[in-house]
Amino acid sequence: MGEPALVSCSRGHGRGVSEAVVVLGYRNPRTAANLVNRWRVRAGLRSVTADSRDTRVIFSGGSTTGGASEAQLMADYAKSVLGFDGTVLLEEHSRTTWENVTNVIPLIEDVDRIKIVSQPAHALKARAYLRRQRPDLAERLVPADDYRLGEWLIVKPLLALYGLWTLRGLEDDERKISLYS
After folding, report:
1. Do residues 141 and 114 lie in contact, with contact meaning Cβ atoms separated by under 8 Å?
2. Average pLDDT of each block of 10 consecutive residues along the chain (181 residues)?
3. pTM for this entry
4. How far apart are CA 149 and CA 10, in angstroms?
């Protein structure tokens, strides 16, 4: 009875004044944020609630080359190129989505609202992983502003196929995509 777990977890209560915007990194072998990570940073920053008094943006992702971590590259882009001057936290050890979620838990445990930013299928997967690892925190999930009609228009069919392929490890009820995923 009721909604599948993932649908309900993507519609958190949204109450409270503190929020964490978790931006998941994407394979970044260069010394500057790649196209995908730059888009994720922009989506993360537009997901920050304007009237929130206590917001932290958490960039998550380890190094793929032994150099700077994805998290550091995204933070550098947010600060130096986009001029973001809010609170930034880095999670620099993750190599997988499961690890992203595991490693950001200590950074999000004390906030009222949690937003996970990535491409829709990847964000859905991360929310499902949060529900598996910490259902109490998953109840605090609220929509991020990481989907806008027309963005990625040319490559969206390929991203959708790749996203469906990456969701193959989720349970049927976890794959249900809500309006907010």
Report:
1. yes
2. 34 72 91 92 93 90 90 97 96 96 98 94 92 96 83 62 64 52 37
3. 0.78
4. 19
